[in-house]
Amino acid sequence: MTYSPHAPAVPPERVLGVVRHAVVTEEPVSADPWPSATVHTAASPDQAFHEIWTSTRTVNSGRYRNLIYGHDGETLFCAAEIPDAERFRDAVRQTYDALVELVQGLGYRLFRVWNHIANINADNADGLERYRDFCKGRAEALEHATRDWIADLPAASGVGALGGGVVMYCLASRTRTPVHFENPRQIPAYHYPRQYGPRSPTFARASLLPCDTGTADGLLYVSGTASVVGHETVCVGDLKGQCRTTVENLDHLLKHVGEQTNTSIGLADFRFAKLYVRHAADVPFVAEEFRRTFGSDTALQVLGVDICRSDLLVEVEGVVTMA
Fold it and tell me: Are 281 and 181 in contact (CB under 8 A)?
């Protein structure tokens, strides 16, 4: 995967999928010339970029219900758009039902999902926060996906967008079995108490995709991580404190994964990271904080969007090279 301000300079048959983080959303999903999703996450042209997933193999693309996808026999990219509506639950459930059917039908396993929800902290027509409305539909679909559905939950992010409805995109693997991890410093999201909504968020804190030689040569996909300890937001209203707690959570997670896989990984091993920042005025500070945290070898992208809890100011996700 690469980040670029431009479309991929490779043949269309080598592109699994492209995500355009754009100032406007003109065409949320498209299959031509490659599977792509556009999300309105860039507040200004300098924040816009392309997230590009390519392959060394020939990619076959197609459509299934409201999904567009590309796969090469080893990795699958898939995306869908749910138009803005007064309620999301039913459409989200149907989209995730279709996703499970497609992934399982093609013989893949999900390991990473991204969800961008416009006006994520606003209420729907019933007075339920749009993110919680979204979580109901997602949980209802995933709980029927497999017998031990919680053990199969992939890494995921659920953050805002500056316009549109919901844009979802994801990755799945065919021959490599992902390994999912929780953070001992945090209660698993799927066990959150009901104060956070009628259905808990359904994702793992990180998913490891091993390489052929084993876990030590794989990639760890880290879910959106914020200033949450146990299940509670900490350092409310304190941007510096939330950045510090987020770093502590990331560090704790990586140490736990390292212990479980007999590897040594740290914050400097992030290949890519995306920073989501609630307030535009905070973007320079957050970017500088995490540039120091990760070091110069990590590709950083910063987006000014809302986060799943109204009291969270920053969220971080990324991809870590195992060592």
Answer: no
Whether 315 sits among the annotated catalytic residues: the reply is yes
Contact 279, 313 (CB under 8 A): yes
Rounded distance between C-alpha atoms, residue 214 and residue 210, angstroms: 5
Tokens for 88?
């999301």
Encode pLDDT of 212-266 as tens digits. 766 667 999 999 999 999 999 999 999 999 999 999 999 999 999 999 999 999 9
Encoded tokens for 66: 């409201």
Which among 51, 81, 315, 317 is annotated as catalytic?
315
Phi and psi torsions of 186, nearest 5°: -130, 145
> What is d(CA 207, CA 188) in angstroms, rounded to the nearest whole number?
14
CA 66 – CA 83 distance, rounded (Å) = 11
Instruction: List all residues 6 or more positions away from 321 whose beta carbon is below 8 Å from its beta carbon.
Output: 219, 220, 265, 269, 271
pLDDT band at 4 (very low <50, low <70, confident <90, very high): low
Taking all residues of the chain, what is their mean pLDDT, rounded to a whole number?
94
